[in-house]
Amino acid sequence: MNRESRTAWRARQKAAEAFVDAAVDAVAADQKAVWDAAVQAAREAKAARVQLTRGDIVGATHVRIGGNWYPVVRVNQKTVTVRGLWPWDEPVSFHKLQEARVSA
């Protein structure tokens, strides 16, 4: 039976650990690059989005918040009060509004 020495075994283990560590670092770098690109795209989309003002909302009958349309109850200086599925009216900041609709 040919047994390797303890020193040779340790050297082989150290080389294997270095190989695995390098592979893990490469995958982590790739994931970080993908994540950074997604974060940058989200920042650019947010910066390009048109911010609605009080003048845009006055006269609107519905506003879109998070993909859902809600009827406008009142337009305040910094918020819009909307009526949703809950039994009370909810104030929402202008920066959360995505779109306003005026029904004829």
Briefly characterize the structure.
The chain is α+β, with helices and mostly antiparallel strands and 104 residues long. It is 45% helix and 24% strand.
Secondary-structure map:
Layout: H1 6-48, H2 54-57, E1 62-65, E2 68-75, E3 79-83, E4 89-93, E5 99-101
Antiparallel strand pairs: 1-2, 1-5, 2-3, 3-4
Question: Which structural class do the helices and strands define?
Answer: alpha+beta
Q: For the CA atoms, what is the radius of gyration?
A: 28 Å
The amount of helix comes to: 40-55%
Q: Tell me, what's the shape?
A: rod-shaped
In which order are the strands of the major sheet placed? 4-3-2-1-5
| Total DSSP helices | 2
Largest sheet: 5 strands, antiparallel
Low-confidence stretches: none
Query: Number of folding domains?
Result: 2
**For the terminal residues, how far apart are their CA atoms?**
92 Å
